Amino acid sequence: MGHKTVSTSRNAVPRARLDAVGASKVAATLQALATPSRLLILARLREGPLPATELAAAVGMEQSACSHQLRLLRNLGLVVGERRGRSVVYALYDHHVAELLDQAVYHVEHLQLGLSDASEDVEDLGAAALPDGSVAAAP
């Protein structure tokens, strides 16, 4: 993996070729995102750092359950914890984690609306994408 760019769209995130090792690492990251409680934790940390006790309350989890999820997210490099006195303040590891979360939410919203990036590209050309995926010519 690396940051060699192989991009097909003007707004696309640069892509790297995926080998077996990289696929395993990406799969572990995506599996971590496959749990609603972890997504709630990441979404709350997207708003800014928070002590573990406050984070647990903010996402409606028991402290021990939240700590377990935070440990997993930390081991995968999605969050970092900094000890401050008797508490640990958690934050997203970096902007990539926020972007990953944002893209996942954006994708789900697009699916719910029946949209795709292809329909946005068509609209940029002055045509309209119809809900069934067909394209109406621009007036």
What does this protein structure show overall?
This protein is α+β, with helices and mostly antiparallel strands. It is 51% helix and 13% strand. Strand 2 and strand 3 form a beta hairpin.
Quick rundown:
The protein has 139 residues and is α+β, with helices and mostly antiparallel strands.
Low-confidence stretches at least 5 residues in length (pLDDT < 50)? 1-10
Cross-sheet strand order for the largest sheet:
1-3-2
Secondary-structure-based class equals alpha+beta
Strand content: 5-15%
Q: Evaluate the radius of gyration.
A: 19 Å
Major sheet size, sense and barrel closure: 3 strands, antiparallel
Approximately how much helix is present in the residues? Answer: 40-55%
Write the element-wise H/E pattern from the N-terminal end onward: HHEHHEEHHEE
* Quantity of strands, as a count: 5
Cα shape: globular
| Terminal-residue CA separation | 45 Å
* SS field, number of helical segments: 6
Mean pLDDT: 82
